[in-house]
């Protein structure tokens, strides 16, 4: 009679373990995306600070693929500001997603511990 219980326990344990590993990978992916967005945000901020230091009569070009398009200084500044805002919003979303996934990993770990402790108690 112990064999069916062991098989059920083993099946539940492997399912929880797979779920936990999947969530941990998603947390790492969210971390990588957050790091990438932070770099993008810093790049936009530095570029914006350099552009604002230029005189108004300076010709400013935007790189598009393999060509450059003449843009006004104001348009490029607006684009860089928008990039920063968009990156900030995405970072907030990813941090919320990451915290949810971390809680989920913690719950899966707790469930695994409970299963092992209940098995030892029997």
From TrEMBL:
InterPro entries: PFD_beta-like, Prefoldin. It comes from Myripristis murdjan (pinecone soldierfish). The keyword Disulfide bond does not apply. It comes from the Eukaryota. This is Prefoldin subunit 1. One of its GO terms (molecular function) is unfolded protein binding. Belongs to the prefoldin subunit beta family. It holds the Pfam family Prefoldin_2.
């Amino acid at each position: 009679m112990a064999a069916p219980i062991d098989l059920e326990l083993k099946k539940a344990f492997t399912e929880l373990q797979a779920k936990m590993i999947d969530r941990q990978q998603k947390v790492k992916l969210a971390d990588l995306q957050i790091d990438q967005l932070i770099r993008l945000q810093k790049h936009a901020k530095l570029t914006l600070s350099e552009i604002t230091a230029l005189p108004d009569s300076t010709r400013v070009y935007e790189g598009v693929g393999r060509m450059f398009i003449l843009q006004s200084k104001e348009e490029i500044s607006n684009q860089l500001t928008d990039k920063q805002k968009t990156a900030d919003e995405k970072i907030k979303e990813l941090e919320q997603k990451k915290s949810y996934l971390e809680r989920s990993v913690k719950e899966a770990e707790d469930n695994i511990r409970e299963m092992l402790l209940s098995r030892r108690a029997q």
